[in-house]
Design goal:
The protein has about 475 residues and is mainly α. The chain contains 24 helices and 5 strands. Strands 2-1-3-5-4 form a 5-stranded mixed sheet.
Length: about 475
């Protein structure tokens, strides 16, 4: 028998699971990142090689590749299969976040905070796709529970989940700053202040050294498995960070200062606002209220430090994707719900108190987010050309001895197919092996790079045989 106090959170988690499944099967096309970060797992599972053409994205997310390699050895490689893992992680992520919020703020704030995230379309999309967001956020929240534990030995082991988080994708490394603050407080109470005594210094030292050693070991394993591919990937990332002369610098501060509406974090925050306007305004109000609040608990300070550390980190980058700020929904949902309930209880919103302001606002957020998602599905009816191209490949690739195609279209096809990437040109691939013509080549005309050399080759030696959305299918003749 389910206890009454658990019914609400189980209802929210059940809705989140259903929402994710609807998105998985009816809304979301295969994305570039899904294919790019699964290609090595497919090649290991089916062909016992990390890469067919030199692409080694496992260097950027070692544990993601390892997890899905194991999965593909049990089942056939498939992006849909990998999405099940993301959905499973997202389910337990919300459950874990509920535990964290309840421990620091009580059941009501915890349920409302989880609800705001569970109905959010941005969160649901990126934790449904077979990328690393659900995985890294799960281990990030698990790390916060370790850091705020009342037991010293648990706090000292906080490096374990944090290292696993970074091993899936090291994007959240800046979270180390608020996490170290959490360890130093050793208590969520109001009157507890950071302590730099022998005990906390030991805990901070163990956590820091443990994270460096374990995370380093994970990435050294990725290097040792394929040194050449690792260094090639690192070189590619250096170009992406714009340390080469022919790229626009990702860290060029003067661009942000000169044109903040097109560079830096503001465009990403604006895009996030467009997709979640009511939630964004609610979060902004909650953050301001938390800053102005005189008596802050250590958890309040930790959540604010999380927000400002992340914003500061991305304010130094000229190119920022809106999904990079998605994890801020965790601290901001708590701070906003806390501010709303406090305002209601204190009488500041007495004019609408009898109409249950918190429930009305949450209902408005839910209606907008769920309504927008289903409008996207029922009215806009988004096309899914990557899935259709993958299905076309499964029927036609056996007619060719060599096929080149974008990452996301080939994971579900059990044949040896070389992936198109932003590193190698078509001619690079053809010159590296003996080729029997014609060669089947699929070029992605949107959200991907097409080299000038490839365009020239396709114009002179290629024949366009089909188009599926922005995927153009060519036969290449000698």
């Amino acid at each position: 028998m389910i206890k009454k106090e658990h019914f609400s959170i189980l209802l929210v988690l059940g809705f989140s699971l259903a929402f994710h499944l609807v998105g998985c099967f009816f809304l979301y096309d295969f994305s570039n990142d899904e294919g790019g970060y699964l290609i090595n797992a497919k090649n290991i599972a089916l062909f016992n090689t990390i890469s067919l053409e030199g692409v080694y994205n496992a260097a950027l997310a070692p544990l993601h590749t390892l997890l899905h390699t194991f999965l593909y050895q049990l089942f056939s490689p498939s992006i849909f299969t990998s999405r099940y893992i993301s959905i499973l992680f997202s389910f337990f992520l919300l459950a874990l976040f509920y535990v964290f919020a309840k421990k620091g703020y009580g059941r009501k704030i915890a349920i409302f905070s989880v609800f705001i995230i569970a109905v959010n379309g941005i969160f649901n999309r990126f934790t449904t796709l077979a990328v690393m967001e659900a995985e890294i956020y799960f281990f990030a929240i698990l790390t916060t529970l370790f850091c705020f534990s009342s037991k010293s030995w648990v706090r000292r082991l906080s490096f374990l989940p944090f290292s696993v988080c970074l091993g899936f994708k090291p994007v959240l490394f800046y979270l180390a700053i608020p996490l170290l603050y959490a360890i130093s407080t050793a208590s969520p109470e109001e009157d507890s202040t950071p302590k730099l005594n022998k005990k906390t210094i030991t805990e901070i030292g163990i956590s820091t050294l443990g994270t460096l050693l374990l995370t380093g070991l994970i990435f050294y394993g990725a290097y040792a498995f394929n040194p050449e591919g690792f260094l090639t990937t690192l070189s590619k990332q250096m170009n992406w960070l714009n340390l080469s002369e022919d790229h626009t610098s990702r860290f060029e501060i003067y661009r942000i200062i000169q044109d903040p509406l097109h560079y830096g974090p503001l465009p990403a925050l604006y895009t996030f606002f467009q997709r979640s306007p009511i939630t964004s305004l609610f979060f902004l109000w909650g953050m301001v209220a938390a800053v102005l609040e005189k008596k802050k608990t250590n958890v309040d300070k930790f959540l604010l430090l999380w927000v400002f550390t992340e914003i500061t980190f991305y304010s130094l980058q000229s190119q920022v994707d809106y999904r990079y700020f998605m994890d801020l929904m965790f601290p901001l949902s708590i701070l906003s719900v806390k501010a709303l309930l406090r305002s209601t209880n204190s009488g500041k919103l007495s004019g609408i108190r009898k109409y249950h302001a918190p429930q009305l606002l949450l209902a408005l957020i839910a209606i907008f987010q769920i309504g927008a998602s289903f409008f996207f599905f029922l009215a806009w009816k988004p096309e899914r050309p990557a899935i259709e191209t993958s299905q076309w490949l499964a029927k036609n690739t056996s007619e060719y001895e060599l096929t080149l195609a974008p990452f996301q279209t080939i994971i579900d096809v059990p044949d040896k197919i070389l992936s198109m990437s932003d590193v190698f040109t078509i001619n690079d691939v053809l010159l590296a092996r003996k080729v029997t013509y014609p060669v089947l080549c699929i070029v992605q005309r949107s959200a991907a790079r097409v080299f000038e050399e490839d365009e020239a080759l396709l114009e002179t030696n290629g024949q366009l045989i089909n188009k599926i959305g922005h995927f153009w299918i060519y036969e290449i003749w000698e």
